[in-house]
Fold:
Amino acid sequence: MQELLKIRGLTVRFYTYEGVVEALTDVDLEMGRKETLGLVGETGCGKTMTALAILRLVAEPGRIESGAIYFSPDGDKEPVDLLKLKEAQMRAIRGSKISMVFQEPGAALNPVYTIGNQISEAILVHRRGEVAAKALSSVTRKLKEGEGLLGTLFKPFRRLQRRLYSDISRSERAFIPRIIGRIPLIRGLLWRLNSEAAKIAVEMLKEVEIPDAERVAKQYPHQLSGGMKQRAVIAMAIVCYPKLLIADEPTTSLDVTVQSQILELLDRLKDEFQSSVLYITHDLSVAAEICDRIGIMYAGRMCEVGSAEEIFKKPLHPYTRALLAAVPEPGKEPRPISGSVPDPLEPPPGCRFHPRCTKALDLCKYEVPGMLEVTKGHLVSCHVIEGGRVAGSD
Structure:
């Protein structure tokens, strides 16, 4: 597997008035190129926190205490540790090489801006040089076509525009265009940038199968249905062709029919843009449908990682087995997991699942199990392993 992302020893803590919350502890994870990796677990197990840590968006009073997140968007270059980058370097990666689709599309969209404006903003931040090149081509064509009195009058204005767009296409942070863009009376010189970005925004709305994209681009979030808003958020996330797309339970608030459409859309876009997808969900059926590999999380730690086929056919960790047993099936009574999720302020010592585990050993109560590779690519963090299977399993 050619790695796109490798996480090692990631630890995130929140320092609250009540105590220190152990959000993530020594998380190890790898993602390959053009792969869909599912993160599965109960609410509060650390799935979303892992995604936010990748983007370095952990809010105060949270801190990324230790670890490394190696990201390799270009296969021919050395991976970079995202945790060691300066904030300006990280801003260039967010939304460009790594994008995120949030769980609630209504909260991810600004209610006072149109859908087209919000997508255009992402384009102008991360694809400014490309947009300037399109604007330059348009101005050059107008100069060649310019005839008559009107063309003569506008020629000096268009020549200045051509110079500005040429500067931006060569360097997105060109000094003179940046200054002009901040002066209200003359920033209109750069109006073609907004025009070209708006065209790309409409094309992206068509890409996510929104009908009548030109009309939708002019609408505000409250005028769209939940499914349409989620498609708009996905369009915003993929507009810069990210290498890694993080989808945080993007179908939770949608009805079943729309959920299926969104899942099919994500799968198609992944293949079309050659991206990898980190899919966060608590729904095992969704993970089984779209994921190549699955990681099971519990109380801020990784329990098991393997191919989707092995996770469902040969689950090794007692928590994975308990999760699968709790899924309703026709003709079978689902078996709930006894006990409750531990308090992150006071997590149990040793294996964090041992208070709820029916096969726990004395060792589980005080020693944290390491990750053991039972078969190629199938790793499990459990003391209760005999010959690659959970002791006492059928």
Notes: The chain is about 40% helix and 20% strand. The chain has three domains: 3-112+220-291, 116-200, 296-390.
